[in-house]
Input
Amino acid sequence: MYDAVLSETVTITGHGGDAIEAYSARPLTPGPLGGVVVLHHLPGYDRQTKEFTRSLAVGGFNAVMPNLYWREAPGADADDAMATARAQGAIPIADERVVGEVEGAMAYLNGLSNANGKGAVAAWREILDWFGRYLAA
Amino acid sequence: MYDAVLAESIMITGHGGDQIEAYSARPLGPGPAGGVVVIHHMPGYDGQTKEIARTFAVHGYNAVVPNLYWREAPGASPDDAAAVARAAGGVPDERLVGDVAGAAAYLKGLSNANGKVGTIGYCSGGRQSFLAAVSLPLDAAVDCYGAFVVGTPPEGMPLKVGPIVDKAPDLSCPLLGLFGADDHYPSPEQVAELEKALQEAGKTYEFHSYEGAGHAFFSVNRPAYRPEAAMDGWQKIFAFYGRYLAA
Amino acid sequence: MCTYLTEKIEISGSAKGASGWFKVTDGSVYFDHPVHAPYGHTLNIDFLAPAQGPSARVAVELSADSARALMKAIEAVLESAPPGLE
Output
C-alpha cells in the first residue's frame, strides 16, 4: 500500500506579497487531493502543530501551516517568537493579515501538482474565537 | 533550513528471509544519520506508533517500525492483527530477533546511514527491545515499561513469554529504561531486580521511574498518558541517542 | 482559553538566559497557556531585550499562587531594604 508522505519547511507568499516560512506535509501520490491550511494556536508555530499537520497528510490531505509569527521573529524558537509578537502588540494578529496568509497558503496548496482545487481551514479553538467574533453576521 | 522527511510503508526482509511490512520515516538529508528500530506495543502496528517513527525522523534519525504481526494478519487493521497475534500467544522471541535484525540491516543500508542502530520498544516492545539488545550487536536500546524482562506472566495471561533478565551479561549496548512508578507489570521491585542484574554484569544503563505514572504513560490517546513524564522521557531518549547513535 | 491581555513594562536590569547574562529592557506579563509548566494556565513573565532579537529572552511560568507569593516576597524585600540603596 503506497502511503508516502513528504513533510518539510517551505517558503510561501503570504499577506502583502511577503515570503514567509510554512510547514508543508503532503502525500506523494497523484491524488487529486484536497488541501488544508492549518492555523497554529496562540502559543505558536510549534512542534505539536507540525505533528498535527503531518497527521493531516497521513489522512490524505495536502496540508500547510503558515508561520504566523514569522515577520516578528524569523528563525526564532516557537515560544520566543510568540513572546516577541506579544511584546510588540501583534497578538491577536490583525484579521487582514491572517486572511492574507490563508490566501497565500491556499495558493500554495492549489499550486501543487496533485491538488484538486478544494481547500479548507483547520483551526485551533482559539483562532475560531477570533473568526467567531469578527466574521459573524 | 532543510528538514524534509519522507514517511511511507515499505517491505523489509525479516526473520527467516520473510518479506514483512514496515513503516519507514527518514530525513531526506545527507546525514549521516543514526537508525532507530521502533518496536510497537502489544496493541499493534498502529497510527500512534507510526507517529513515533515520524518524530524520530523529524529529530534526524532514520526510523523503521517492523510490523511484527504481518505474518499473522497481512493487511489487517492493527487491532484485528493484534487480536490474532494475541490468540497465538504473541510474537516468538526468535522471530522478533530476526525481524529486528532485518530492520537494522535496512537502516544500515540507507545511503545516509552512519552505521549505528538503536532500538526502542513500548510495553511488550520494551521487553523485546531488551531481548534484541542481548541477542544482536546494537549501539543503544531503550526499554519503555517492558514487562516480563523479570518475572513470569501470571496464569491466564495470553503472552507466552518468559523472563530474560539472566541474559543481562549479553547486553551489547547501553540501555535506557523508562518506567512508571505505579506500574505493576513491571513493578518497581522487578525494575530494581533488572537494575541489580545490570550492575552485577557491569553494564552501562540509565533508569528513570516516574511518580504518578503507570504503564503506557507515553500513549497519547489513552487515559494512561502522562504529559510531564512523556515529555521528560522524550528528552531522556534524545539525550541518550545523541550520546550513542551519533556518528 | 488563550488570553490576549498583556501588561507591558519597561525595565532596567539583567537576566541570565541560555547563552549567559544580557541586559533587559522590556517585560511582558500575562496569564495564559504555559509552554512547559504542568498547568492549564500560568502567570507568565518574559524578560526581553528586543534590540537583541527574539531569543534574548528569559521566561518564567508560575502557578497563580506562586505568582502571588512572589509578589509578596518582592514587596517584603523592597520594604526591608535599607533606605538609600536604590
